[in-house]
Amino acid sequence: MIGRLGIAVPLAAMAAGMAAWLAWGQPPGARAVPIRGVEWAGKGVWLRAELHTHTRFSDGAHTVDEVVAAAAKNHCDIVAITDHTDGNLKAVTPEYFSAIQAARAANPDLLVVAGIEWNVPPGKGQEHAGVLLPSSLEQQDTLAAFKEQFDDENKEGENPELAIAALAFLKRAGGSGQLPVMLMNHPARVPASTSAPVLTFEGLHRAAPGIVAGVEGGPGHQRSTPLGSYKRPETLIDRWDPLVAQVGGAWDTWLAKGLDVWGAAADADFHHENGEYWPCEFSSTWVYAPDRSIDGVIRALHAGSYFGEHGHIVSKAELSATPAGQTRAAVAGQRLTAAVGSTLSVALALDVPDVDFEGKPNRVDVVELIGVSGGKATVLYSGAPQAPAAFNVPVTVPAGGIVLRARGRRNVDGGPALQFYTNPIRVATAR
Description:
single chain, alpha+beta, TIM Barrel, Immunoglobulin-like, 15-stranded mixed β-sheet, four-stranded antiparallel β-sheet, 9 helices, 21% helix
């Protein structure tokens, strides 16, 4: 066979060269470990996002222009407009999309994502989900039909099948193109609701895994009393929803069942200044996207390529797992396959800004690694962050594999801690 430059290359040599290419980045003699998902790992871009805001098109106090201008002032790279789809409100009207387009034109350096906050059946408005749209689905007629047929605020009765039908509608609307991404908002705020995520999320995720990506682990209303507007018996744990913050809670249960669920979003849920922070003033979801585009952001959210934080305590929190003898690492949102009994080097890299959201000297006090295996969740490491990595610990791959996620906190005297959470890395075992 003729290779490059017209030189004859034996087939055996070509095969050897292909094997070497497949093991690119590995030491000589090492066998490459399969890693899937987040194909842009190592060549993406970090973008600071606010994924949950409201304007005068629903129950917000400000115009789209004002919300977007505030996001730009607070150094967001991304802001999503997610007004409620109650039938008597004006989300997904022609004026709604026109206002979003005008805000984009006025803020060309900011990615303004069109979205909605959907009243998820069968809860009759007690539970909400953010639905963020790729560019191909910004169609007023499609979203108006979705609102009319599937928003559950004022529908009579409780139809548990309506949510499944709504997801099928969105899947058909997406066709062969990019699908919207859905995150269940403030997931434990109304635990008695028939549409509470602890009851319904698993079924929705299994019905439409390409749309239903996860939950909003860091809910908004962080200036309110009580925090997050969470009323007893459910309260936030250091500002994070208990479904995510409890080791061994709902998130870890879903992960243990093999579901790839993302819980590391932290949002403002901005409506007005009373009880809430402006976009990116206090909460941020940092998205590691393949490129700086709306569709790149949607792709990253689907993949779990992001982390959430409060108080500006970190601007990068990158969890990685590297198999022994390899140089290529898996990152949050990815899956790798490793042999039972093999060793992973699990590390957390942090960028800690000099000052926090109040302009005060910044720090992170504790970092933790959580492992989910054998149906149980355990804190595998807890301690003060080290250098150059916040931690770098060996983890032995157990039978059945393991899921790894990380978090960290800055302690606050007399108040809840400021925290960040990463999404997980799933480690499967070779058969």
